[in-house]
């Protein structure tokens, strides 16, 4: 149903996974990544305007359930998201998500949206946006460690937004690496499937870790790090789940999204409470690259923050309306008398 039908008293739209696929089909993934990254950057530049909090999480033996809220002066949004590494055994994605964008003046959800695809897109867009400020100029080669559902998005975001044209892949499941290579075969990216993490990261400008290993793993060791590398650590995003040998964090500056959350969930959980970090909001506000030399090592301890979801759902909403996508739904009863809720039951 066209959004032109959403002009009544209940202007709520539903953005489905099919709508996201249509947005990507009609706009192209490059433009979508650029659009989401632009929305994220603009929202980070008004960092102090947001009512921010760490996500609310329920940690399970086999995963985590999370609620990620944030509010600006005019809008409130939340995302529910999980991470269940065993889900593929049941035919489900490791990550599943949905969320909403709400009008502060009325409390009515203007948008209810899928967030499984949107999370993958916004995470990759945030990684590439951050690398614009942290990675050395003219970076061309990236290692991707962990080649599951997030990996294609990371690969293409870095290709489109940073010009990465060489990928070295490693996953403990070689079929996952073959899957990634197959999905990227129509691009100009040169791809090498490696037999070890050490082989994949050797000579890389950027290392992206996006594994689903639910442990305090030492996937990237200090002995693997070379001068000038940028480390995009994405997979360590909940207590007990990390990817870097702790000593790696002592090798360069560590940049984070929201400190109260990253201290608990990121690679920082392995470090002392007073370990020094730098906020990306300050880096973005400066408008300048953060690294001081081509030999400096930089680390993005990425856990994903709600402002990025806020940005992404606003982008998808704007494009869905532009393209006439999404379905009109009733999320609140349409009352003859706003003070007589019970009468709605009698009439229906």
Automatic annotation (TrEMBL):
Organism: Pelistega indica
NCBIfam families for the chain: PRK07589.1 (NF005762)
Stated name of the protein: Ornithine cyclodeaminase
Organism lineage string: Bacteria, Pseudomonadati, Pseudomonadota, Betaproteobacteria, Burkholderiales
Pfam families found in the cross-reference section: OCD_Mu_crystall
PANTHER family per the UniProt record, alphabetical: KETIMINE REDUCTASE MU-CRYSTALLIN (PTHR13812)
InterPro entries: NAD(P)-bd_dom_sf (IPR036291), ODC_Mu_crystall (IPR003462), ODC_N (IPR023401)
């Amino acid at each position: 149903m066209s959004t032109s039908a959403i002009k009544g008293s209940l202007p709520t739209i539903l953005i489905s996974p099919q709508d996201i696929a249509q947005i990507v089909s009609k706009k192209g993934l490059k433009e979508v990544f650029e659009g989401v990254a632009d929305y994220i950057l603009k929202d980070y530049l008004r960092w102090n305007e947001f009512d921010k909090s760490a996500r609310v999480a329920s940690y399970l033996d086999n995963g985590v359930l999370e609620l990620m809220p944030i509010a600006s002066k005019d809008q409130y949004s939340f995302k529910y998201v999980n991470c269940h590494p065993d889900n593929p055994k049941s035919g489900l994605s490791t990550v599943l998500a949905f969320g909403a964008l709400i009008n502060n003046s009325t409390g009515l959800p203007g948008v209810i949206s899928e967030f499984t695809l949107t999370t993958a897109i916004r995470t990759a867009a945030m990684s590439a946006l951050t690398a614009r400020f942290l990675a050395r100029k003219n970076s061309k080669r990236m290692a991707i460690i962990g080649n599951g559902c997030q990996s294609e998005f990371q690969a293409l975001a870095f290709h489109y937004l940073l010009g990465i044209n060489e990928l070295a892949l490693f996953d403990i499941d070689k079929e996952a690496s073959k899957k990634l290579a197959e999905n990227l075969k129509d691009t100009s990216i040169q791809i090498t499937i490696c037999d070890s993490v050490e082989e994949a990261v050797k000579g890389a400008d950027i290392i992206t870790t996006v594994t689903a290993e639910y442990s305090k793993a030492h996937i990237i060791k200090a002995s693997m790090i070379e001068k000038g590398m940028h480390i995009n650590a994405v997979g360590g995003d909940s207590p007990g789940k990390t990817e870097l040998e702790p000593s790696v964090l002592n090798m360069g500056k560590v940049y984070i999204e929201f400190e109260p959350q990253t201290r608990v969930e990121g690679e920082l959980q392995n470090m002392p409470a007073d370990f020094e970090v730098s906020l990306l909001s300050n880096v973005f506000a400066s408008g300048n690259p953060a690294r001081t030399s081509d030999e400096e090592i930089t680390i993005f301890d990425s856990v994903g923050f709600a402002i990025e979801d806020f940005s992404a759902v606003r982008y998808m909403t704007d494009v869905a309306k532009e393209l006439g996508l999404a379905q009109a739904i009733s999320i609140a009863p349409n009352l003859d008398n706003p003070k007589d809720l019970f009468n709605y039951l009698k009439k229906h």
